Amino acid sequence: MGLLCSFQSCFICGQSGATITCCEADCDLSFHLPCAKQGGCVTQFIRPFRSFCPTHRPEQAVEATPEPGTECLICMEPVEERKTFNTMVCPACKNAWFHRDCIQGQALHAGFLSLQCPLCRDNNTFVMSLFTMGIRIPFRPPSWEGINAFAELGERHRHCDARECLFPGGRAEAELEGPWELLLCSSCAAEGTHRHCSGLRNSITSWECDGCAGLGTASRGDSELAGPSTARLSGLEPSEVSREPETISPNTGSLVLSGL
């Protein structure tokens, strides 16, 4: 068999060594597996692992035609005006259109357990149709559920985001306590500062970044001047906050500020 294949020519590239032959009884066309897509051949990656030339390849038994301007639900680029080798449709909803290359890429990432129609979420009919049309679907969990795939999401923020970090060891270093302790924003935990870099006393245990403290909407100039040290602080002594004394007007009963 190996000797025979070495003499068989690929009808697509013309080179010898074509080991795949169309399974149609009266067809003797052979081709290389890497040439299959280029020549419009279909190779089914499920038992009995049959292959078909462009003349005898299966087609989706779905009576559907894309509306003008229909886009692939994966790449959002226009599809062809009808079902072809490169344009496919979900047999369940008949409304989800996609390119062969796009759904093949989706299948390789999702795997057999998670692959479904991007629109109607059908699984069984959708997947079996893809198998028939020569889409390779690996029998494994989706790639995004691999070991430690989301490990970085559990990592704690570990550097100072002050406009000017004063710690000699750099932004990524900190001490367990004292002026060089790293405080994270008490709301988002996505920004941090050394106490000394933002002028925070040791008695202050809670700090918020500018975005969470409501200063993120200020103008660019104001934001640059403010810096992390102007973010809202919890634990300030009453004497540290300058306010105008408030009084109640005896005539109107309204709240007014002294000196106005």
Count of DSSP helices?
4
Low-confidence runs: 216-260
N→C terminal distance:
101 Å
Mean pLDDT across all amino acids: 81
As a percent range, the share of strand residues is 5-15%
CATH class of the largest domain: Alpha Beta
Task: Explain the overall architecture.
There is one protein chain. The protein is largely without helices or strands and 260 residues long. It folds into three domains: 1-57, 2-Layer Sandwich (Herpes Virus-1); 60-143, Herpes Virus-1, CATH 3.30.40; 172-237, no CATH class. It has helices at 2-7, 100-114, 124-132, 220-226; strands spanning 20-21, 30-31, 42-43, 51-52, 87-89, 97-99, 182-184, 192-194, 206-207, 233-234, 246-248, 255-257. A hairpin with a 6-residue loop joins strand 11 and strand 12. Mean pLDDT is 81; it is low at 216-260.
What keyword list fits this structure?
two-stranded antiparallel sheet, two-stranded antiparallel ribbon, 14% helix, single chain, Herpes Virus-1, disordered C terminus, little secondary structure, 260 residues, 12% strand, 12 strands, 3 domains
